[in-house]
Amino acid sequence: MTSTRARRSAFWIALLTALAALAACTSSGRSDEKARATPSRAVTAALRTVERSTDQARSARVKSTTSMGSALSMKADGTLAWRDGLTGALKITYTGGTTADTMRRLGTTSMEARYLPDAYYARMGEAFAEKADGKHWIKYAYDDLEQLAGSSGADLADQMRGTAPHTSVKLLLSSKDVRKVGEETVSGGRTSHYSGTVHGEGVTSQTVDIWVDHRNLLVKKVEKGRTATGPLTQTAYYSDYGVKAAVQRPPTGDTADLKDLLRDSEGL
Description:
The structure is a single chain. By secondary structure, the chain is of the alpha+beta class. It is built from seven helices and 13 strands. A hairpin with a 2-residue loop joins strand 5 and strand 6 (119-123). Helix 2 (41-57) runs antiparallel to helix 6 (166-173). The relative contact order is 0.21.
């Protein structure tokens, strides 16, 4: 592989790594089988109501911050909808860690992300366009991720499709030790606070905390655990349930496909 091709290959792989870091911070896991406590029927019933109400709301505005040890810190702001598959648009800003350093060398520390039912799209800066025949968007088709990375790619695709807020509630329902912590004020409103222990993909035992308002809608979520790169913490706030969250597929002529980029960089 020539030095130019090697640099280009590193560029595409860095972008995929940034995407993987984002997806790894979404709710995905299983219950903590080691926990011996059994949730009360009242807590289980309350959480099922929250899951149903949040699911039926269909869309929301979300603001989140995420840190993953030395690898990543970032913030996201936008809207998500989950009526027929996940759709939405977020502005993602990498604020620290090795991923941010890599992205900075590649000419950008922020991007627009668009979720569609079949793929994730990221709008990069001019440095990306210079290396992609003038195209500003990169497409990560979920089916391609599975073909390119096997089971890990399939897990990544599933995590990308599972970022709707009610998935956090569903995850807590699988916890063996979920409990109601108490009543607290969040964003100026009274909420019920629930907490439980789960296992996430690529994450050791972690805690999931959620805060629910009087409409049985999720308004805050905090996930804490550990990854291979260090502590993981993600805090997300949800508001404006039912907000319009229409998203358009980026223009084909301005979009580069990840599969094609990797094939070209390897000289295939």
